[in-house]
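for the recovery benchmark. tokens below, seq after
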């Protein structure tokens, strides 16, 4: 997932925050975890905390894992996901 895809997705979430507030806050949590991974990795590496480095590296993949989970749930018709076309480049913001 690229930074531009994350930016498009965040913009879509902001535009639709009143229509889908839980999805909006869930994506904020995903971005928070991703940022914690990027900011925590250098600090945990300098502190020689191997377990924390591994945890931070795992957090790097939070947005990708979230999108893959939502895509799978959408394809199985368990959960509707209106922002998938935005990150696939098929739809622009409102």
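predicted aa per position
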């Amino acid at each position: 997932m690229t930074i531009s895809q994350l930016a498009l997705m965040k913009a879509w979430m902001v535009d639709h925050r009143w229509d889908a507030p839980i999805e909006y806050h869930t994506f904020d949590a995903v971005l928070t975890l991703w940022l914690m991974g990027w900011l925590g990795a250098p600090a945990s590496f300098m502190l020689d905390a191997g377990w924390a480095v591994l945890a931070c590296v795992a957090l790097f993949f939070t947005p990708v894992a979230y999108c893959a989970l939502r895509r799978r749930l959408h394809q199985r018709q368990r959960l509707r996901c209106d922002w998938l076309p935005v990150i696939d480049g098929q739809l622009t913001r409102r």
